[in-house]
Amino acid sequence: MKNKRSTFWHGENDMATFTYRDKTYDIDDRNFLTDRDAWDDNFAEGMARKLNMAGGLTTDHWKVIHFIRKTFTETGETPLVYQVCKACGLTSKTLKNLFPTGYLRGACLLAGLSYQDRLINYYGEAAPKAPAPASKETPVKTYRINVIGFLVDPGEWDEDYAWHRAQEMHIRLSDAHWRIIHSMRESYKKTGLVPTIFEVCENNGIEIIELEHLFPSGYHRGANKIAGLPSIFQKI
After folding, report:
1. 2 lies in a domain?
2. pLDDT for residue 134 is more than 80
3. Which domain holds residue 231?
4. Please, are residues 72 and 121 in contact by the beta-carbon 8 Å criterion?
5. Residue 108 or residue 14, greater confidence
6. What is the rounded radius of gyration, in angstroms, for the C-alpha atoms of the chain?
7. Residue closest to 114 by CA, chosen among 37, 7, 18
8. Last residue within a domain, chosen from 107, 122, 137
9. Same domain, 37 and 84
10. Does residue 86 fall inside a structural domain?
11. For the chain, how many structural domains are there in total?
């Protein structure tokens, strides 16, 4: 049976609707489902077509999608990429091939996690403690960050910023960390886009499991934040 074509249009307040096989879903301006309880297999299949995922969803796609939803339902948190790879028996390269648009903008989007849910659960972390008062001889640089802890202007980034953010995450920056951080910033400078975790691994010749050891809090919550790059949900 021939499938009806999906339709997509923008509405008011950066909201939109997405229709596939006669069922309509409310989505935000980045295609994320606004109500995760409205998700069903039909949404995933239709959105996969919209993302130009050739061949449709395979057994491996569904394994990842259902694992993400199951983990979120049981814990209230989105699983990290490393956890997905381990649970589903995939390598970073295989996961990238399955979801070319990225983990968050591909797998999580298809799993129907809402924008609001992701802000609450994906970025949930303790607020950093206030630094000790500086002496009059020590100049203090102020960095502007948004409500979820990302640097407002990537141009304000410097290595002192990275060092302090890493300290908050209990990460001691090594040469390996700095290679990743500078690689990410160089990629962003060239393209104007935050590189995906897959691109970072390829550019630095490492596997996702190695990146996990370097940034235990996750690629987005750890490496991306320390590198001073925007959140993918932040309009650039």
Report:
1. no
2. no
3. 126-236
4. yes
5. 108
6. 19
7. 37
8. 122
9. yes
10. yes
11. 2
